[in-house]
Amino acid sequence: ITRGETGSSMYFIAAGRLHVELEDRSLNLSSGEFVGELALLTGAPRNATVVARGFAYLFELEAKDMKRVMRRSGAMRAMIERRARERLSASVGSAADNVREDAA
Question: Are the C-beta atoms of 50 and 18 separated by less than 8 Å?
């Protein structure tokens, strides 16, 4: 995944680790987590560059299939939307922290 590109899929990590480079920070994701949902939910370009840290086995879920899964499974929809809100809040929080630091 490359920051700025249009998202057409999200990915579930079955095994391995992914390194996520955001504009203001980085993080690592591992088995059981997912990435790429924000671009699908918001329609905005990808907000991060993501690379595998060694071997990684991923399941790809295309946008059209994600919509179908979310319509059929309230639990899956809630989980994906909750994580998206958490990630958006973290981004907004980090941006607010940067503004406060710059103002000081």
Answer: yes
